[in-house]
Amino acid sequence: MRVADFRMLLSRAAAVQSLVDELGFGLKPQANVTSLYDILITDEALREATRQLFIDGHFALAVEEAYKCLNNVVKQKSGFTVDGAKLMNAVFSPEKPRLKINNLKTQSQKDQQQGYMQILAGCMVGIRNPRAHEHRYMDEPFIALEMLVWANHLIRIVKTSKRTRRK
Length: 167
Known about the structure:
Blueprint: H1 3-22, H2 29-40, H3 44-55, H4 59-78, H5 84-91, E1 99-100, H6 107-133, H7 141-160, E2 162-163
Antiparallel strand pairs: 1-2
């Protein structure tokens, strides 16, 4: 292909792309991610903590704030003051839970309690902490949205859990 032919092809492609964008058929990734955020993130505390950061493109900071929000929801509901993984392990321990996500009567229910305890602790260590301690941590928009949706789910689990009388 000659250089002149290649330039003409690029010019035509640019004209087609302009027409697609003008007609509103072009992809607008940020707008799509924001629309998905608005559909999928339903918890008000989480939205308040993360929405503007997410819209402004501060994806890692939005994720960090989401998991700090989750941590604080657990603290508020449990009355415990420890933080992070230590908090999750203490509050959701299947042996003596402060917050029960089910009745803990069957082995499956005990497994679910232990599994969510481990998930919540892991989120503090593997999702929140790297963003809190790593300078210029970067997240891609869709990856950040996945982690925000997961935080939304976990906050719902915490908010629907039952507090025990354990001190």
